[in-house]
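This entry is set out below.
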Amino acid sequence: MRIGVLTGGGDCPGLNAVIRAVVRKGIKDYGYEFVGFRDGWRGPLEGDTMPLDRAAVRGILPRGGTILGSSRTNPIKIEGGVERIKDNLAGANIDALVAIGGEDTLGVARQLTDAGLPVVGVPKTIDNDLSATDYTFGFDTAVNIATEAIDRLHTTAESHHRALIVEVMGRHAGWIALHSGMAAGANVILIPERPFDINEVVAHVESRFETRYAPIIVVAEGAHPKEGQMELQTGEKDAFGHVRLGGIGQRLAEEVESRTGKEARSVVLGHVQRGGTPSAFDRVLATRLGVSAIEAVHDKDYGKMVALQGTEVRRVDLSAATDELKTVPAERYQEAEVFFG
């Protein structure tokens, strides 16, 4: 068999570990040949490939990013896109495709499966917001990076008696904010699932200033205030219709400083969270998912995604992963609220 592999969406620590596992397992146990498609769905859409053999994956386990490149190309929005992919896969003699990505990439994989293409999905997102899997690789690394940053910001906030607002990634789900905020002892955590009351936020900040410590607020990029409390700017949209976010941290800093009279600064961690070397947990998880993905291909169990459930890797329908995002439940946020202020 000749297997195609692609990585789509935002880069993520652990992508190379998946590619390595897929290729090493497939060659060693099944004698498969592999072809890498460059830059997400653009690769099969345009027939842009690269060799993917043992030599190509040697030494990539600890590397961040993806040797295949990535993009947010959406072939479903391109006229004749699905047929072009079908033709290019057939022209390259591809028997099956392993798609590694998040909600958007796997959403395309699901539609291609419905169109008759043999696809197996691997869940990837630092946001940890894909359903049917307990964890996605990249999340642990992102949380560790954010936690270390917040730890460092505590001391400078206290030295200058100022509030610091740390903006982390999380468009629709606040898992990174929740975990890093709890781990680093943030005084307020704001997530997209729970519209915040700016008056409550200010009250927590003032309460913290009454001690000898300074407040740290962790806010997910998709967090928003209750209706009518603050105005937020929105940006242009990408190929999947997502508005480019950013700016909630700065707006909060301005509002906190205006209302409390205390100096406030915002720090946007941005792409630092998803770049660089993956954690040990993410390397192991990514490797296990890669091995399981090529096993699914070998079994011709297409239209499935490999998922971590408990401590076991299982196969689930792609629809189970993409029908609904996994968001932070109310009870998890309530655990964090104990430590606000």
Remarks:
- The chain has two domains: 2-138+278-322, 139-275.
- The two ends are 59 Å apart (CA to CA).
- The CA atoms of residues 75 and 82 lie 6 Å apart.
